[in-house]
Amino acid sequence: MDNKSQTKPNAVVLLSGGLDSATALAIALDQGFQCLALSFRYGQRHDIEIAAAQHIAKSWGIRDHRIIDIDLRVFGKSALTDAIDVPKSRSIDQTIDVIPVTYVPARNIIFLSYALAFAEVTQSYDIFIGVNAVDYSGYPDCRHAFIKQYEEMARLGTKTGVEGRPIKIHTPLISLTKAEIIRRGVSLGVNYADTHSCYDPDQQGRACGFCASCLLRKKGFQEANVIDPTIYSS
């Protein structure tokens, strides 16, 4: 590590391997943080995203990338961790639900808890997470209100917080459309061919093209007027 990097403040970035988290990582780096990345192998059917996260972290020169193994399949009740079909549609309007079955119970609460622990032991006072409350799938843990309340809980429940150095949770994408996220990432040099978004990829890792995540990704690239590098199975 060079002297220049030692002067940069640390930040923990939740890196799923998807489009949003890759953009959040690029933004954190652009803001001058020395980034540490955290990914989760949680029993998801789209485990290919872990390989994507590893590739992204390596390409950006992230020296500390932790992959945490937890098994949310023990709770199930999600199309991503249980024997439940991932909804497929040819229209984003047809994917709208109050809270879709692809919601993983308490996932961001769990992930952020790990991030808080990692931040405390690495003297990181900033966490970046690529949640989005505009073009998203209706998840309650992607909203402003959740992040605001979680940040307050972290202030009250961590050693860092009660000692007067509360950890800031950054959500740089939360108010952006998918097209705006893509344009921002392109401006920072994000290679979206390295990212994976599909909820139900095939054995070759190709995106299905019809789950809610694929439809939002397609729409984002189209509206951003950027070529979609995703390899779809059909």
Summarize the structure in words:
This protein is of the alpha/beta class and 234 residues long. The protein has one domain (3-224): Rossmann fold, CATH 3.40.50.620. The chain contains eight helices and five strands; from the N terminus they run H-E-H-E-H-E-H-E-H-H-E-H-H. A five-stranded parallel β-sheet has the order 3-2-1-4-5, with helices on both faces. Helix 2 (19-30) crosses helix 7 (178-188) and helix 7 (178-188) crosses helix 8 (212-224). It is globular and about 55 Å long. The model has no long low-confidence stretch (mean pLDDT 93).
Structure keywords:
234 residues, alpha/beta, Rossmann fold
Q: Roughly what is the average pLDDT, rounded to an integer? A: 93
State the end-to-end CA separation: 44 Å
Instruction: Give the amount of beta strand, in percent.
Output: 5-15%
Number of strands: 5
CATH topology type:
Rossmann fold
Largest sheet: 5 strands, parallel
CATH superfamily: HUPs
Binned, the helix content reads: 25-40%
Number of helices: 8
> Which structural class best describes the helix and strand composition?
alpha/beta
Q: Which CATH C-level class is it?
A: Alpha Beta
